[in-house]
Amino acid sequence: AAVNGFTKTGYSITGWSFNLGSGPREFSPGETFQYNDALTFSTVWTPNPYTVRYDANDGTGTMEDTVFIYDTAGNLRENGFTHAGHSFAGWATVSDGAVAYSDEASVINLAESGEITLYARWSADPVRAVVVSPSAIDFGSVTEGYAQAPAARTVTLENTGNQNVTLTQPT
Fold first, then answer.
1. Which is nearest to 128 in space by CA: 155, 163, 154, 99?
2. Which is it for the CA torsion 8, 55, 89, 51, positive or negative?
3. How many CB atoms lie within 10 A of CB 118?
């Protein structure tokens, strides 16, 4: 709460201003002066800085904090954390919350002052497998000067993860 009773979200009073006829003049809190006429003072508001901290949330690595100024847009840092078997999904405001911000998102007014922590959110990478049935394929044999073509073989491939599959005949 402000000592003088004045508040403005995301701002602090850094002084007072009034016009003496020769132009506006600013005074710092506690400064004294003499003047014989009535004056109308205005507050001088300065936007607060705040710090965004980044939490790996079960991931590994470190990231530097980012300092923002209230009412000024800025970008979050690029994710620098890793999590084995997972892909980065974005940033949440609580460790088990939904993604609120994408990587390097432009943000404004995440906090009025002080600090806020953003938590990395991870999505599990899909398990990819290629199943070859039968597991061993006999392509026949080659004898010098004579090649006997093997009987036709049926090979079934089940590709559950968009992986490239290459079958080559052994030499």
1. 163
2. positive
3. 24
Do 53 and 115 form a contact (C-beta atoms < 8 A)? yes
Contact assessment for residue 153 and residue 117, using Cβ atoms and an 8 Å cutoff: no
pLDDT tens, residue by residue, 119-158 = 999 999 887 666 665 555 555 554 554 455 555 556 566 6
Question: Residue 91 is inside which H or E element, if any?
Answer: strand 86-92
Pairing of strands 49-55, 114-124: parallel
Residues 6+ positions from 41 with CB-CB distance below 8 Å: 16, 17, 18
Handedness of CA 137, 143, 145, 148 (dihedral sign): negative
pTM for the whole thing? 0.67
Q: What's the DSSP call for residue 25?
A: E
